[in-house]
Amino acid sequence: MTVKSSYAPGQFCWADLTTTDPAAAKAFYTALFGWTAEDMPLPGGAYTMFRKREHDVAGLGGQPPEEQSRGIPPHWNIYVSVADADAVAAKAAELGGNILAPAFEVMESGRMAIVADPTGAVFFLWQPKKHIGATLWGEPGAPSWFELQTTDPEKAKAFYTALFGWSTGGDATYTEWIVGGEHVGGMLKIDPSWGPVPSNWGAYFTVESADDTVAKARELGAKVYVAPKEIGGGGRFAVLADPQGAMFSVYEEKRR
Prior knowledge:
Order of helices and strands: EEHEEEHEHEEEEEHEEEEHEEE
Strand order of the largest sheet: 3-4-5-2-6-9-8-7
Number of domains: 2
Number of strands: 18
Low-confidence stretches: none
Distance between the termini: 15 Å
Mean pLDDT: 94
Number of helices: 5
CATH class of the largest domain: Alpha Beta
CATH architecture of the largest domain: Roll
Strand content: over 45%
Shape: globular
CATH superfamily of the largest domain: 2,3-Dihydroxybiphenyl 1,2-Dioxygenase, domain 1
C-alpha cells in the first residue's frame, strides 16, 4: 500500500468521472471497487468523493449539458500535479496545446486548468491546496497508471516531455512515461481498426483479480472491450466501459 501525502510537480495525482447519470455511476463503482461515496455540494451541482477506507481515491461529477449536446460521451479525466497552474497552462499554449479552461480556483481545494494537447487529448492541471489528489495509490481500488491513446505519438512525446520534464521508456509499440525515475503511465498509437477514436487519456485502477473484477463488472452492466490478458513483464489488465459508457481499465499486479 502506498499512502500519499504529496505529489511532485509532473506526477499524476487524481482521476474523476464526468457522467450523465451520477447516481447510477456511484452505485456501479462502489459495488465494483468497494468504494464509499460522499456527496459534496457545489455551486450548480454536487461532487462525489470516492474513498477506499479513509483515503480519497477518485471523484465523480455530472456531465455538463453542453458536453452532452456535442456528443461527448461520459469519460474519466486525469490530473497532473503542478506548482503553478497558470504558468504551466501558459507553457502548454506556447507548446501548441489548447487551453480549454484557464486556471481557476476550486474553492479551498486547489487551482485547476483544462488543456488539450496538440493531438487533442484533454488533461487537467492541478495546483494543490487542501486537496493533493488521491491519498492511496496502487493497491486494490486505487489508481495506479494513466495512459494516453493518441493519433500522433511523436508530437505528443515532444509536448509532454517539454511541458512536464517527463522522460520516456518502453519500446516501439508502447511508450512509458517516467517521472522522477518512476514509471507512472504509458502511451500508444490509436489503431485505425479501432474506428473513429479521438486522442484521449484513460485511467487504470488496481484490482486483486482482473478476471473476478471483469465478471462482476459484467453483472453490474459494464461492457468489456478487452478481456483480461497478460501484460509484458507480468500482471493482467482489462478494458471496460461502465453502464453509462465511460471507459476505464483495471490492472492486476503479478503475484510474487
